[in-house]
Write a structure and sequence with these properties.
By secondary structure, the protein is mainly α. It has one domain. It contains 6 helices and no strands.
């Protein structure tokens, strides 16, 4: 008689689920770190990493944004679809899912920076680049970027392929 449902023991399923979450958490933590470094390059007048370290409040905002980002990543990895019949390795290290994460990373950077500059240009009486004057403003800016990026990554992790 054919079995309906998973053929692996329950503990194997749980271990694979935990490995998937850990794998995506580390990959996405690297991507957000890389994203902030790229923000430094794409917005040369705003030195994000340097300014955030100048104020405990901006550091707190940065850490808060990081926790929200990681919560979105972990939720996406935990609830994301797994291909039925995929091997144990494919259920954790899906090449399609990794491609979606890479595409999401580039889209978030390009869309985010483009919209930031477009909105700055469309609202000349609100000088966006003045956020560089205070570390807290930079902290809020990076906090918003991490939440924005976290939502995009969450969507990539939960999208059916």
């Amino acid at each position: 008689m054919d079995q309906i449902g998973p053929t692996d023991p329950y503990y194997v399923t749980v271990l694979l689920w935990m490995a998937r979450i850990a794998f995506f958490a580390f990959i996405c933590a690297f991507l957000v770190w890389l994203g902030i470094r790229v923000l430094d390059v794409l917005t040369p007048r705003i030195h994000e990493r340097q300014k955030i370290g100048e104020s405990p409040l901006s550091i707190g905002l940065f850490i808060g944004g990081f926790f929200i980002f990681m919560g979105l990543v972990i939720h996406g990895a935990a609830t994301g679809l797994v291909v039925v019949g995929a091997s144990a390795v494919e259920s954790v290290f899906s090449p399609n899912r990794l491609g979606m994460l890479a595409a999401s990373f580039f889209v978030s950077l390009l869309v985010g920076i483009t919209l930031f500059n477009l909105l700055d240009w469309l609202t000349p009486k609100i000088p966006f680049r003045n956020i560089r004057e205070t570390p807290v403003a930079v902290g809020v800016y990076v906090f918003g970027y991490m939440v924005f990026f976290g939502l995009i990554i969450h969507a990539a992790l939960t999208t059916s392929l």
